[in-house]
Amino acid sequence: MKGQNKLFIAIIVALILGVVMGGIVHTQYPESSEGFSKNIKLLGTVFIRLVQMIIAPLVFTTLVVGIAKMSDIKMIGRVGTKAMLWFIIASLVSLTIGLVLVNWLEPGKVMQLPIPAAGDAGEVVANSQGLSLEQFVKHVIPKSLFDAFATNEVLQIVVFSIMFGVALANMGEEYTKPIVRALDISAHAILKMVGYIMWFAPLGVLGAIAAVVATNGFEIFKVYAIYLRDFFFALGILWLVLLVVGYLILGNRLFELLRRIKAPLLIAFSTTSSEAVFPKLVEELERFGCNNRIVSFILPLGYSFNLDGSMMYMTFAAIFIAQIYGIDMTLGQQITMLLVLMLTSKGIAGVPRASLVIIVATCTMFGIPPEGIALILPIDHFCDMGRSMTNVLGNALATSSVSKWEGQLDNHGGDL
């Protein structure tokens, strides 16, 4: 966690430097602001391209491994089915809440930025106009896996990954164990790369903020205040929905569960990582009365498939970036984005800022300039605190609810 704190401090320092540099150019050398912005934004381009570099292998390895390991669910039968139903419904609800509220509150409409005219994002915007049914089908079904990898066509990679994962899951664990293990190791290695690449984030922040302030002045900070206000309001709505559902299933024992998991919730909030509290969460759920076999099965699955806070943030952030660049998305495009995020986000564990990779991939796919991710990086740490805590709550409720449905929720006074 010390590394994450250092990264956060580095991003804050880069933010301040960017504001100072951009402010000096905006006030003292306004005639040079355009050239300065164009050159300083190259720092952001470096960061964005590093993130785009790992999108295809990350989606492929995490999805294939997640689906291939689903053969374990057959051994537990009903428990696995109920868990997956919870995960799917909770994910759809989280994504929908983010989508509805960001469209209602419109935090990105406070300030408008010009769409980058050159580079990958500009090409994507130009190519994304007038998407027909024929183009959509071609966009979804890959004619070549290598072509999909080369062009970062996330939906095509998802289609191949699902088919490949299902094939592995039905070939027998002993036969497929080496390749699943190899892909699992690859997925962890790529997630490790995410950590390395995030150390380039301060440069991306410096470039993005300096460029924006140099051309637009200090209006960006009004956007940040509104973005944080609206995001935490949306998060509050999601908490209300989760707690109401939890009360309908657990009754008054919901309040006991909240008392039990208050420490994991606070740790996740302060460290911005839901994985940091995994051992403590296992212990507290068993003390709450959940069957230890159900906990050991559902909780690891939930850490890949049931990240409610991260799911809501993905739709919220992606539409916010579209709004700030003045890109109007149709209802059909937004629903398609929701379904794409439903698939591509699976397998992204509770690693700080791993969800940003998926947001960049989604923005690129829907013609939204991925450079926009650098604009929200300075305040992403605060958003990450809220969504990590929400992920912990969602997984605790999922495990407790399935235990209750299975008649395996005891009330033993907190004894392990």
TrEMBL record:
<keyword id="KW-0813">Transport</keyword>
<keyword id="KW-0472">Membrane</keyword>
<protein>
    <submittedName>
        <fullName>Cation:dicarboxylase symporter family transporter</fullName>
    </submittedName>
</protein>
<dbReference type="Pfam" id="PF00375">
    <property type="entry name" value="SDF"/>
</dbReference>
<feature type="transmembrane region" description="Helical">
    <location>
        <begin position="226"/>
        <end position="250"/>
    </location>
</feature>
<dbReference type="InterPro" id="IPR036458">
    <property type="entry name" value="Na:dicarbo_symporter_sf"/>
</dbReference>
<keyword id="KW-1003">Cell membrane</keyword>
<feature type="transmembrane region" description="Helical">
    <location>
        <begin position="46"/>
        <end position="71"/>
    </location>
</feature>
<feature type="transmembrane region" description="Helical">
    <location>
        <begin position="193"/>
        <end position="214"/>
    </location>
</feature>
<feature type="transmembrane region" description="Helical">
    <location>
        <begin position="154"/>
        <end position="172"/>
    </location>
</feature>
<feature type="transmembrane region" description="Helical">
    <location>
        <begin position="7"/>
        <end position="26"/>
    </location>
</feature>
<keyword id="KW-0812">Transmembrane</keyword>
<feature type="transmembrane region" description="Helical">
    <location>
        <begin position="356"/>
        <end position="379"/>
    </location>
</feature>
<keyword id="KW-1133">Transmembrane helix</keyword>
<dbReference type="InterPro" id="IPR001991">
    <property type="entry name" value="Na-dicarboxylate_symporter"/>
</dbReference>
<feature type="transmembrane region" description="Helical">
    <location>
        <begin position="83"/>
        <end position="105"/>
    </location>
</feature>
